[in-house]
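Re: export button greyed out
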Amino acid sequence: MAINTVLGRCEPRDLGFTLIHEHLTAGMPGWEFDNARFDRARELANIVERLKEIRSLGVSSFVDPCPMELGRNPELAAEAADKSGMRVIIATGVYNEALGFPTHFRMIGADDIAEIYVRELTEGIDHTGIRAGIIKTATGGVPGWTVDTEITRHEQKALRAAARAHKATGAPILCHNNELSPFGRETLDIFQSEGVDFNRVLIGHACGVGNMRYYFDILNRGAWLGFDRFGIDTIAPDKMRLASLFGLLAVGFDRIMLSHDAVACMLGRQSKAMLQMIEKCPNWNYAHICRNILPALRKGGVAEQTIQKLTVDNPREYFGG
Ligand SMILES: [Zn+2]
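Workaround output, generated via the alternate export path:
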């Protein structure tokens, strides 16, 4: 089935090497009240330069699953795609309750939210005519800030909305989980009760969890795992992410996709904690997998065919090809 990119449709076979979870722009709700210094032309030029860099390293598609309330900018994304030659896919969906989930969405039902998602997937976002190509969900608290013991009531509602929008449109679902209280399994339970095909579900941010039982539980149910935070050493060192990845590949689990969750343009001023994190994570950028992680996999004996699967074949199958 056709995929919505910010510049029109493409087919899954057109995707090629895909980074499954990156961000062009991102800001916490409220950033727009702190945007006096936002220089659109300068930010766009920086984004285009970074996209061109990874184009030159062989990346041809870029999924930005920014939720609707975290600084998603469809027009900027379309311009960046046009100027860089990168295929860009953006998302509909809301973030977790700890950091996002606009009040309006707390007050309406799952079917109402699903209707909003479907509209963004089929007609376009706001009045831009730019369609979302993927559905984002998010659960769990914030490491070091809040740790939830279960998926919240509103998050459950948004998971059901995502499932229903997926069934209405065929768009895949991409799930954010936090590393300390990852609810990948519970997320799948809700999707199962909604009749979702797990071949179209990516349980994200798994690489920082480091728990084989968690990985096996998800992969054995047929969903995809996102090893999508390479370079964020403050959450988990790349060595730990790689140890899990090598282990899974060695026993034949390869339904995994790779990314960094990197952000080219952070909106609003940054907190001290975020500035420290950026300083401690010098490899947290779009090019790290091409420059360092794939060579590490090759050095560890991972076959070219497997690397092709992680970067090209798996995204294609996940998008329905
Ligand atoms: Zn993200």
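The first helix runs from residue 40 to 56. The button fix ships in the next patch.
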